[in-house]
């Protein structure tokens, strides 16, 4: 459920007609709905209520906009961060350091130090090497880092190859076969309170069974570690729940996910953390774009050329991802089109042979389900600027990220003297 809908023939975000935003901010522009974010935050929380006191850490990578983080903070969420930059954003949004979890396979020394200095709540350690480095830094500072060991359960998440993280050949986590040995070593280090295990097998999961298989393995490991005398109090079950991008896609509901987790983790006696991203932010955003022109195709359908491109929304080019494409003021007529951006490569294609609302030059349209992994993956390829972002709240709205002009980007560049 989201708050983008036609009213009087015009698509609105909550109570704001999208043409108003296009008129005042220009296009392309991401538009987020606060009510949708809040609704998803609450649905996810309610779904986990049977588990008692859990920690919810919004995956900042899915949408790091400060206003979005502020909404999540007000909903009582902490943050799952994967870089110093995300860590600083979470703090800037008012999240308590104790509510921040630091994931990622390549945390640098500087990032580990930053996490320690800020006294974040948990480091998810992805290798023995990282664990040793963290312990050493913490011991030098005279503090104790709270940590879990991220394991790689060797489970196929059944999602796109580029967003699968839990197979043995993926770079993430410590293989289960090495987990006990690694845990024993790291648990003995001064500076580290290794208190549990973390897992995350991938994103946009449309089936619960790989998650369940991974969680079963985590449960067995927890029992194993306890038998070996370790004190295991925390388990982080990551994110990954999918969202519907197109008609007929039926991801498990948060309630079904919660019920599965409750069943599998029964009796574990640990404090659970979750790192949802897409399931909260995905349907809470659209990318609003204007048709530049419609061009006749060669031997296929016409090209609808929009002013958004792969640099603004990379998912179709990167993963072949589907985003519904809808007219902001649909006439009722339909067409079949190739929907493309202006960038000079064929990869800049949002959809091929897509049946969609009939559109003409100058008209507005949206790519749906663009609230997660949208603006955050933007680039300035082809010397296009960085796309603007807007948040709507009922009938009010605000620009929550300025468009960054190509000139601002080139201002950061220099031609050295010896080249003048
Ligand atoms: N926790 C960890 C450790 C992660 O790596 C991720 C996502 C999440 C949580 C959040 O997962 P979610 O609930 O959003 O599925 N750019 C790709 C998605 C990459 C996901 C990376 N990790 C896309 O556009 O589909």
From TrEMBL:
<dbReference type="InterPro" id="IPR009006">
    <property type="entry name" value="Ala_racemase/Decarboxylase_C"/>
</dbReference>
<keyword id="KW-0457">Lysine biosynthesis</keyword>
<feature type="binding site">
    <location>
        <position position="345"/>
    </location>
    <ligand>
        <name>substrate</name>
    </ligand>
</feature>
<feature type="binding site">
    <location>
        <position position="278"/>
    </location>
    <ligand>
        <name>substrate</name>
    </ligand>
</feature>
<dbReference type="InterPro" id="IPR022653">
    <property type="entry name" value="De-COase2_pyr-phos_BS"/>
</dbReference>
<dbReference type="InterPro" id="IPR022644">
    <property type="entry name" value="De-COase2_N"/>
</dbReference>
<feature type="active site" description="Proton donor">
    <location>
        <position position="344"/>
    </location>
</feature>
<dbReference type="GO" id="GO:0009089">
    <property type="term" value="P:lysine biosynthetic process via diaminopimelate"/>
</dbReference>
<dbReference type="InterPro" id="IPR000183">
    <property type="entry name" value="Orn/DAP/Arg_de-COase"/>
</dbReference>
<dbReference type="Pfam" id="PF02784">
    <property type="entry name" value="Orn_Arg_deC_N"/>
</dbReference>
<feature type="modified residue" description="N6-(pyridoxal phosphate)lysine">
    <location>
        <position position="61"/>
    </location>
</feature>
<dbReference type="InterPro" id="IPR002986">
    <property type="entry name" value="DAP_deCOOHase_LysA"/>
</dbReference>
<feature type="binding site">
    <location>
        <position position="240"/>
    </location>
    <ligand>
        <name>pyridoxal 5'-phosphate</name>
    </ligand>
</feature>
<comment type="subunit">
    <text>Homodimer.</text>
</comment>
<dbReference type="InterPro" id="IPR029066">
    <property type="entry name" value="PLP-binding_barrel"/>
</dbReference>
<feature type="binding site">
    <location>
        <position position="315"/>
    </location>
    <ligand>
        <name>substrate</name>
    </ligand>
</feature>
<feature type="binding site">
    <location>
        <position position="319"/>
    </location>
    <ligand>
        <name>substrate</name>
    </ligand>
</feature>
<dbReference type="InterPro" id="IPR022643">
    <property type="entry name" value="De-COase2_C"/>
</dbReference>
<feature type="binding site">
    <location>
        <position position="373"/>
    </location>
    <ligand>
        <name>substrate</name>
    </ligand>
</feature>
<comment type="function">
    <text>Specifically catalyzes the decarboxylation of meso-diaminopimelate (meso-DAP) to L-lysine.</text>
</comment>
<keyword id="KW-0028">Amino-acid biosynthesis</keyword>
<dbReference type="InterPro" id="IPR022657">
    <property type="entry name" value="De-COase2_CS"/>
</dbReference>
<dbReference type="Pfam" id="PF00278">
    <property type="entry name" value="Orn_DAP_Arg_deC"/>
</dbReference>
<keyword id="KW-0663">Pyridoxal phosphate</keyword>
<protein>
    <recommendedName>
        <fullName>Diaminopimelate decarboxylase</fullName>
        <ecNumber>4.1.1.20</ecNumber>
    </recommendedName>
</protein>
<keyword id="KW-0210">Decarboxylase</keyword>
<comment type="similarity">
    <text>Belongs to the Orn/Lys/Arg decarboxylase class-II family. LysA subfamily.</text>
</comment>
<feature type="binding site">
    <location>
        <position position="373"/>
    </location>
    <ligand>
        <name>pyridoxal 5'-phosphate</name>
    </ligand>
</feature>
<feature type="domain" description="Orn/DAP/Arg decarboxylase 2 N-terminal">
    <location>
        <begin position="35"/>
        <end position="281"/>
    </location>
</feature>
<keyword id="KW-0456">Lyase</keyword>
<feature type="domain" description="Orn/DAP/Arg decarboxylase 2 C-terminal">
    <location>
        <begin position="30"/>
        <end position="371"/>
    </location>
</feature>
<comment type="pathway">
    <text>Amino-acid biosynthesis; L-lysine biosynthesis via DAP pathway; L-lysine from DL-2,6-diaminopimelate: step 1/1.</text>
</comment>
<dbReference type="GO" id="GO:0030170">
    <property type="term" value="F:pyridoxal phosphate binding"/>
</dbReference>
<dbReference type="GO" id="GO:0008836">
    <property type="term" value="F:diaminopimelate decarboxylase activity"/>
</dbReference>
<feature type="binding site">
    <location>
        <begin position="275"/>
        <end position="278"/>
    </location>
    <ligand>
        <name>pyridoxal 5'-phosphate</name>
    </ligand>
</feature>
């Amino acid at each position: 459920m989201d708050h983008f809908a036609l009213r009087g023939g015009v698509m609105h975000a909550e109570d704001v007609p999208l043409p108003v935003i296009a008129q005042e901010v220009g296009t392309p522009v991401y538009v987020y709905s606060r009510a949708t974010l809040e609704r998803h935050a609450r649905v996810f929380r309610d779904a986990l209520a049977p588990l008692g006191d859990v920690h919810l850490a919004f995956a900042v990578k899915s949408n790091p906009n400060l206003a979005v983080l502020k909404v999540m903070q007000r909903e009582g969420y902490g943050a799952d961060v994967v870089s110093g930059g995300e860590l600083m954003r979470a703090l800037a949004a008012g999240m308590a350091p104790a509510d921040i979890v630091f994931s990622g396979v390549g945390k640098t020394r500087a990032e580990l130090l930053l996490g320690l200095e800020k006294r974040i709540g948990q480091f998810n350690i992805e290798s023995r090497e990282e664990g040793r480095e963290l312990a050493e830094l913490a011991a030098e500072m005279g503090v104790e880092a709270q940590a879990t060991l991220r394991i790689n359960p060797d489970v196929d998440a059944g999602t796109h190859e580029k967003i699968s993280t839990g197979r043995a050949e993926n770079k993430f986590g410590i293989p289960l076969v090495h987990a006990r040995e690694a845990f024993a070593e790291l648990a003995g280090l001064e500076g580290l309170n290794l208190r549990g295990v973390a897992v995350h097998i991938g994103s946009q999961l449309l089936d619960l069974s790989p998650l369940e298989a991974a969680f079963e393995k985590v449960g067995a490991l927890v029992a194993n570690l306890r038998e070996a005398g370790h004190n295991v109090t925390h388990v982080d079950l990551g994110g990954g729940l999918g969202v519907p991008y197109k008609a007929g896609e039926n991801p498990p509901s948060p309630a079904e996910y919660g019920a599965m987790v409750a069943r599998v983790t029964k009796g574990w006696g640990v404090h659970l953390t979750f790192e949802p991203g897409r399931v909260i932010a995905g349907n809470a955003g659209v990318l609003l774009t204007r048709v530049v022109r419609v061009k006749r195709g060669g031997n296929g359908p016409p090209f609808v050329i929009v002013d958004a491109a792969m640099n603004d929304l990379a998912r179709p080019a990167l993963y072949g991802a589907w985003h519904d494409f809808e007219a902001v003021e649909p006439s009722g007529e339909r067409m079949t089109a190739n929907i493309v951006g202006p960038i000079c490569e064929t990869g800049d294609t949002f959809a091929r042979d897509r049946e969609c609302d009939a559109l003409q030059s100058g008209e507005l349209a949206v790519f749906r389900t663009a609230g997660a992994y949208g603006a955050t993956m933007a680039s300035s390829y082809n010397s296009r600027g960085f796309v603007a972002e807007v948040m709507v709240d009922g009938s009010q709205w605000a620009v929550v990220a300025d468009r960054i002009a190509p000139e601002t980007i080139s201002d950061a560049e220099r031609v050295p003297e010896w080249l003048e």
